[in-house]
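Q: Okay, next protein. This is SLC13 family permease from Algivirga pacifica. I've checked the sequence twice, so it should be correct. Can you predict the 3D structure?
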Amino acid sequence: MGKITNYANKLASAGTSKKNGRAALDAITTTEVITPERRQSLEAIFKLGVSILLPLIIFFLPTEWIPLSGIDVVQQRVMAIFVMATLFWILEPVPIYATSVLIILALLLTVSDKSLAFLEATEGELLSYKAILGTFASPIIILFLGGFFLAIAGTKYGLDKNMARVLLKPFGTKPIYVMLGLMLITATFSMFMSNTATTVMMLTILSPVLASLPEKDKGKAGFVLAIPIAANVGGIGTPIGTPPNAIAMKYLVGEYAVSFGTWMFYAIPFVVILLTISWFLLQKLYPCKAKELRVDIKGTFDKSTKAIIVYATFATTILLWLFGDFVGLNSYVTAVIPIAVFSLTSVVTKEDFNKISWDVLWLVTGGIAMGLALEKTGLARTVVENIPFGTFSPYIIIAAAAVLAVTMANFMSNTATANLLMPMIVALAVSLDSLIPLGGVTAIVLCATFGASMGMSLPISTPPNALAHATGIIQTRDFLRTGFIIGTTGLLMTFVMVYSLNVLGWL
């Protein structure tokens, strides 16, 4: 009653004119009814409602209403969970790592072999509950852990500052050139070692640079984004730079064979041009206020026993990430070395262990679980098989393969994307004579492979993105903006590259 009287008094005091009446109404609406806190709360409720309601509609629709032939109940439920995950990751009605926990719970309750009895699917391939829960111990998670141990130990014993001093010195003090240096170093390392391991190392080196910038400088976000972008782009440069490249090489054999050197001949100019475009884009979107970066890094290398252990382990891990194949070790097994060494020697203590970004591990786990569901239930294959490629122009087929690859890679592992798409794309290319004048199998495989590496629009798109997101300096919208622009630019460049190579007779 008191509020109504208050509103009446405000209207009376405003007079009878239309202008004054509107002013009084605005005052009531803004100060009494919809405060900023209430508006924020309403927005959060709306985002949460949309993120839940739309997936529920998909979940309970009759399968025959879904315009995908061959889709079963399990695949339908995974589609609903996929839509839910996408909305939650983009709108962020809850913390982004919590979305990953929700994905795992939803998969366990609705499409696993230990799901709720009243929700048990009557048709479709159920997922093993052990496989879903096992995503938290997947090799990529161990690689993350190894990287976190290296970062913690490196920071603790000053290795990050010393490496920054040595590697960044040739690039001077201007922020734009320091960023260029970081991107070149990151891209070069990513050509020959794990993108995730490279990102961990480079984010460690970046720490002193960020510390030298003002607190609210937009350039901080630009520097952090530069690392995953350079890692993702740099990985394209060699057949071993990223798993999709290696998967593609399995199909580029015989008459379609592409050698290690030929791949680099195709890819290195692509990487250099896209990296340059990305550098200019970051300067435009995240200009640095500081005119100079005085990264005042002084001191000498710590010579204590534990510091020497850190240096030796760091060097050994990097070398094994680069050349581990010669001794039979892959990057995932190598990542266990720093975890074991630093734990046994108390370089990383219990207190340090608690500093690990567990939210990042959950974030990545959710992405892995989503990819597992898309692959094992056959939903991804069903979607691809429902696209009538044979009726399209060869140009549209190549473009569609690349766009499909980049779209899938934004929501699931680029490795899983390549594993799913390559067999179908190669089979399609071999069966269609219309693709031969455009480069045939080689052209479409290159476009799809490069497209898979262009998927970088979300924190969960690639491990480097997730690691950069863990810094707390960049948000999902930053990935959406830069990832979309760079991904789209990269796709267009891929089409131009493949077309040019074919015209020159090099495909």
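A: Here is a summary of the prediction. The two ends are 80 Å apart (CA to CA). Residues 476-503 form the longest helix (28 residues).
Q: Noted. On to the next one.
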